[in-house]
């Protein structure tokens, strides 16, 4: 059958179209408390086999790169074994090569980012780890470079991570020497600074030099202390006379993240600075 | 139309959906890689009435919104509009020609992205300009090229007479 003139729109077509538009507008208007269960139900039912397919495909895609990385690790380990006679120091070198995962205290899960094609994807990303893997809401999502975001909603085998680029993201932060505290939030939604962060609420008399590393402070109990957030690159011109706001270059760009580590254990009171310092020193 | 044609048509759509969730991430930057899901919707609209196409667009959009919760509802609205306009436009204006269908795929992709970014309000300023004038046209081109290949390769299965007019 080919296209025919019988396919011109009828009144019923127009009514269906208007109903779909109305439902779409209603979906945009529903509060977050309704929106998340609807999205979660769709991900767990209709989309579940498709997400499984995507996860398998991602595993297949990255397996070659992981094989090369493992080969490189093996070669490095063999080289280290040649030069280091003592088993203890050899083990220390191998642990150093294995990356951030081994430096974290127990209680984390590795997850892959399941990329989506809509242009608004970076503020919230879907990952391949969910409740079955131990992920809980409000868990911190990390990459070896620093903080990526926080887990929003959790399904059985997937979870949604709200990245720092989301307009509602906030984190209690401090400078690396612990002398200055503030709140980190996205810098804005327009212009060239859209992918920057800002450190707000710094007392006016306290100066933070450019290049200072900003970490999570651990205050509030959501993020553990010591996760890199970004580096100070400037100060925002403001009329406020009692506080300053500094611009940060983020440690991690959400669009560049392909794998995540989601903390699942009781890290809230811990300090992860040593794990990330070791990451900077790793070969 | 033979009964088997209907199944072949559905099979092509299923293949496109499977490609979206399996192969797409290997085709480069996700802002540029062809959107197989939207392509399946646009091919569906070629043989469907505007009302059916709008409903299919709404369902596809809502499912995508579940995967990008930051802009929930915007995808449903965008796919509904694109589905309806594509089916209506095909019936009223467009000839059955491979290039014309290519332009339809390109325009559908661009309009979908336009509606999503405007309705969600997540992108503004230079980010919006870059999205609409650079990334969306690139994605439209890749989607159109894949769509034209699918129409050419499966024209018998899709029961479309591409060279008639």
Task: Report what the structure shows.
The complex is a heterodimer of chains A (283) and B (165). With 283 residues, chain A is α+β, with helices and mostly antiparallel strands. In chain A, 33% of the residues lie in helices and 25% in strands. In chain A, strands 1-2-5-4-3-12 form a six-stranded antiparallel beta barrel. A six-stranded antiparallel barrel of chain A has the order 6-7-8-11-10-9. The relative contact order of chain A is 0.14. The model of chain A is unreliable at 1-5 (pLDDT under 50). Chain B is mainly α. Chain B has seven helices and no strands. Chain B has helices at 3-22, 36-46, 50-67, 74-92, 98-120, 125-153, 155-158. At the A-B interface, α1, α2 and α3 of A face α1, α3, α4, α5 and α6 of B.
Strand order of the largest sheet of chain A: 1-2-5-4-3-12
User: How many domains make up the coordinates of chain B?
Assistant: 1
Quote the CATH topology of chain B: Arp2/3 complex 21 kDa subunit ARPC3
Rg of chain B, alpha carbons:
15 Å
Shape of chain A: globular
Q: In percent terms, what proportion of residues of chain B is strand?
A: under 5%
> Segments of chain B where pLDDT lies below 50 for 5+ residues?
none
Q: Helical amount among residues of chain B, as a percent range?
A: over 70%
- Give the oligomer, counting copies of the same chain as homo and different chains as hetero: heterodimer
**Helical content of chain A, roughly?**
25-40%
Q: Which term fits the overall shape of chain B?
A: globular
Largest sheet of chain A: 6 strands, antiparallel, barrel
Major sheet summary line of chain B: none
Instruction: Estimate nothing, just give the exact number of structural domains of chain A.
Output: 2
């Amino acid at each position: 059958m080919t296209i025919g003139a019988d396919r011109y729109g009828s009144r019923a077509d127009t009514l269906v179209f208007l109903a779909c538009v109305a439902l779409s507008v209603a979906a945009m208007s529903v509060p977050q408390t309704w929106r998340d269960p609807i999205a979660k139900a769709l991900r767990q039912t209709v989309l579940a086999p498709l997400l499984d397919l995507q996860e398998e495909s991602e595993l297949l895609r990255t397996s070659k790169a992981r094989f090369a990385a493992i080969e490189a690790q093996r070669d490095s380990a063999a080289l280290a074994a040649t030069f280091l006679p003592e088993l203890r120091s050899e083990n220390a070198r191998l642990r150093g090569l294995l990356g951030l995962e081994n430096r974290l205290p127990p209680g984390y899960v590795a997850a892959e980012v399941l990329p989506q094609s809509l242009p608004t994807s970076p503020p919230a990303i879907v990952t391949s780890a969910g409740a079955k893997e131990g992920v809980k809401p409000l868990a911190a999502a990390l990459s070896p470079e620093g903080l990526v975001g926080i887990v929003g909603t959790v399904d059985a085998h997937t979870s949604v991570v709200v990245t720092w680029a989301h307009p509602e993201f906030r984190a209690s932060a401090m400078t690396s020497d612990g002398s200055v505290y503030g709140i980190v939030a996205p810098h804005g939604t327009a212009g060239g600074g859209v992918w920057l962060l800002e450190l707000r609420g710094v007392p006016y008399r306290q100066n933070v030099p450019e290049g200072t590393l900003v970490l999570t402070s651990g205050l509030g109990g959501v993020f553990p202390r010591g996760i890199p957030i970004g580096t100070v690159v400037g100060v925002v011109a403001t009329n406020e006379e009692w506080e300053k706001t500094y611009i940060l270059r983020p440690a991690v760009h959400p669009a560049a993240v392909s794998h995540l580590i989601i903390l699942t254990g009781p890290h809230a009171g811990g300090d992860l600075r040593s794990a990330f310092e070791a990451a900077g020193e790793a070969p | 139309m033979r009964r088997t044609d209907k199944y072949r048509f559905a099979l092509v759509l299923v293949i496109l959906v499977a490609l979206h969730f399996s192969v797409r991430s290997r085709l480069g930057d996700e802002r540029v890689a062809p959107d197989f899901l939207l392509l399946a919707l646009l091919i569906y609209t070629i043989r469907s009435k505007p009302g059916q196409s709008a409903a299919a667009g709404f369902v596809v959009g809502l499912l995508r919104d579940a995967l990008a919760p930051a802009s929930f509802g915007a995808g449903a609205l965008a796919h509904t509009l694109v589905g309806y306009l594509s089916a209506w436009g095909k019936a009223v204006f467009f000839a059955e020609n491979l290039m014309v269908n290519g332009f339809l795929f390109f325009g559908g992709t661009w309009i979908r992205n336009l509606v999503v970014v405007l309705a969600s309000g997540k992108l503004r300023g230079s980010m919006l300009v870059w999205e609409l004038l650079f990334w969306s046209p690139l994605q439209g081109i890749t989607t159109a090229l894949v769509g034209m290949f699918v129409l050419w390769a499966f024209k018998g299965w899709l029961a479309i007479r591409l060279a008639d007019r």
